[in-house]
Amino acid sequence: MRRLSRKKALSSLKELDAFPKVSESYVETSASGGTVSLIAFSGMAILALLEFFVYRDTWMKYEYEVDKDFSSKLRINIDITVAMKCQHVGADILDLAETMITSSGLQYEPTIFELTPQQRQWQRTLLLIQSRMKEEHALQEVLYKALLKGGPTALPPRSDAAVEPLVACRIHGHAYVNKVAGNLHITGHAHIAAFVSHEMYNFSHRIDHLSFGEEIPGIINPLDGTEKITLNDNQMFQYFITVVPTRLNTYTVSADTHQFSVTERARVINHAAGSHGVSGIFVKYDTSSLMVTVSEQHMPLWQFLVRLCGIIGGIFSTTGMLHGLIGFCFHVICCHLKLGIYRPREVRMYRFS
């Protein structure tokens, strides 16, 4: 009884077989079919390899939400070189509440304003990346995914000993400010303004690094590498910045940082012509109420397998239909030619007188 039930079960399974087997004696092979099969297998291999590269790649997902953290401090990272001596220049931060933020975390280092050839090449490369990022926003995702893998983005140190006079001042370090609008200004010292001639003022500057939040190696900020040269001693440079809190989650790093957009403006202070103000460098920043979460995403394995099966099955079915269509057309054309060979010729009658 058990054997009969097993036979019935096997016969039922055979009836449900959607892939019937054909005996090899009934299968006819041809050179054209072999050629099409070779092309199909090659296409499958190439597309499967490309799909594997797509599976290995990742993309960045952006999510937006309201930033509810108003109590924490905002860190500003500064590395600016001004073409003035350190005793003539000072940096201060004033927020919207007229609160003067202490700048004890900033250091003043006498240096040379001109860059070495190696540093100049670094700056040109950085500016080239900046211009490409403005044109192709997807480049920022490449930088996010390459964090901590590439080279350092800081200005390389001078390779030669300084022999020129140190007439410039490098202001670098960080400061913690409230998460409200504020103004970072680099101007001449007010208490020595009466003893220093305005002709000694030169606010030509280079921004080697300016960022907000935690410093992350590999991220290039919009003002990094910016250099402004002026020959006027009453020049005002203004940078209007909108800071967006950003939470970055990639396979290499997880950190809370800040992105920002910037608008630049420069004008000459001339009170006689109606252009009032104070000469110097002013970075006016404001924080956004939205927070961006950037997370690195990867294709699931099941989706990769589904796409791979679709590629293989699609190529197999398409090449089979094309081979059948070409064979049918070839057969029809050959049949017409053969019929033309056996077409009865016209018989001409000749009369003999």
UniProtKB/TrEMBL annotation:
| One Pfam family here | ERGIC_N
Name its cellular compartments. Answer: Endoplasmic reticulum membrane; Endoplasmic reticulum-Golgi intermediate compartment membrane; Golgi apparatus membrane
A single GO BP: retrograde vesicle-mediated transport, Golgi to endoplasmic reticulum
Its placement in the membrane is given as: Multi-pass membrane protein
Chief site of localization? endoplasmic reticulum
GO CC, alphabetical: COPII-coated ER to Golgi transport vesicle; endoplasmic reticulum membrane; endoplasmic reticulum-Golgi intermediate compartment membrane; Golgi membrane
**Domain of life, per the record?**
Eukaryota
Task: List, for all copies, the residue spans of the domain called Endoplasmic reticulum vesicle transporter C-terminal.
Answer: 168-321
Q: Which residues form the Endoplasmic reticulum vesicle transporter N-terminal domain?
A: 13-99
Q: Enumerate the transmembrane spans.
A: 35-55, 322-341
Q: Which residues form a coiled coil?
A: none
Q: Keyword annotations for this protein?
A: Endoplasmic reticulum, ER-Golgi transport, Golgi apparatus, Membrane, Transmembrane, Transmembrane helix, Transport
Q: Which family does it belong to?
A: Belongs to the ERGIC family.
Job description of the protein: Plays a role in transport between endoplasmic reticulum and Golgi.
What this protein is called in its record is: Endoplasmic reticulum-Golgi intermediate compartment protein
* Organism for this UniProt entry: Mola mola
Source species taxonomy: Eukaryota, Metazoa, Chordata, Craniata, Vertebrata
